[in-house]
Design brief:
200 residues; mainly alpha; Serine Threonine Protein Phosphatase 5, Tetratricopeptide repeat; extended
C-alpha cells in the first residue's frame, strides 16, 4: 500500500512537471507568433514592451534591436523584404552600433545581408567593440557572406577596427575565408604585428 502511494505521488509530480513544461512551451510559441506578428506589422514599440514585460529586458540591451535586426539574425528573408518595403531604415543601429547587416552575417545568412546591402545598408559599419559585418561573416565561417561583402566593398583592413576578420578566420580554422581575405588585400604581416602587440 505504501509503495503504491509513493509511486502515485511520484507520478503526480512528474505529470505536474510535464504540464508546467508544456505550459511554458505554449507561452514561448505564443510569444514567437506574437513577435512575428509585430515584426510584420512594424510595431517596434509593442515588440520592445513585450520583451520588457515577459523577459525582463531593459532598454539599452536587446530591447533596442529592431524587428529588422531580429529578422536578419534569424535569416527570415521574406520578413526582411517586408520590413524594408514598409520603410524600415536598413542602417538602423542599436545602442552598441550593431546593424542588421552585422546580424545577418553573424548567422551566415547571405541572402538577408545581400538584400540589406542592395537597399543601401553600409558595408563597413563598425560597432562600439570595433566589429564589422566582415568580421561577423568570418566568425560564422560563411564563405558566401565574406565573398559577397568583399564584392560590395568591405574593407578587410579598417583602421578603426579592434578585431581583425583575418585573425578571426584563422583562429576558427576557416581557411577559405582567410584565403579570400588575403586575395582581397588583407595584410598578413600587419595582422601579425597586431597579434604581437596584443600579447605583450
Amino acid at each position: 500500500m505504501e509503495a503504491s502511494s509513493v509511486l502515485l505521488a511520484l507520478t503526480n509530480i512528474y505529470v505536474a512537471i510535464f504540464a508546467l513544461f508544456c505550459f511554458k512551451l505554449l507561452i514561448k510559441v505564443s510569444l514567437c507568433v506574437l513577435t512575428h506578428f509585430y515584426i510584420v506589422r512594424g510595431n517596434r514599440k509593442e515588440a520592445a514592451r513585450i520583451a520588457e514585460e515577459i523577459y525582463g529586458i531593459v532598454q539599452g540591451s536587446w530591447a533596442d534591436r529592431s524587428p529588422l535586426h531580429e529578422a536578419a539574425f534569424h535569416g527570415r528573408l521574406l520578413t526582411v523584404k517586408t520590413l524594408i518595403a514598409q520603410g524600415f531604415n536598413v542602417n538602423i543601429l542599436t545602442i552598441d552600433r550593431v546593424s542588421p547587416v552585422h546580424e545577418a552575417c553573424l548567422g551566415g545568412h547571405v541572402s538577408c545581408a545581400k538584400v540589406l546591402l542592395e537597399n543601401g545598408a553600409r558595408v563597413n559599419v563598425v560597432t562600439v567593440d570595433g566589429i564589422t559585418p566582415l568580421y561577423n561573416a568570418c566568425r560564422s565561417g560563411s564563405v558566401a557572406c565574406v565573398s559577397m561583402l568583399l564584392d560590395y566593398g568591405a574593407n578587410p583592413e579598417l583602421e578603426t577596427q579592434l578585431a581583425s576578420p583575418l585573425h578571426e578566420a584563422v583562429i576558427r580554422g576557416y581557411r577559405e575565408c582567410a584565403e579570400m581575405l588575403i586575395s582581397y588585400g588583407a595584410d598578413i604581416d600587419k595582422e601579425l604585428q597586431k597579434l604581437v602587440l596584443r600579447c605583450t
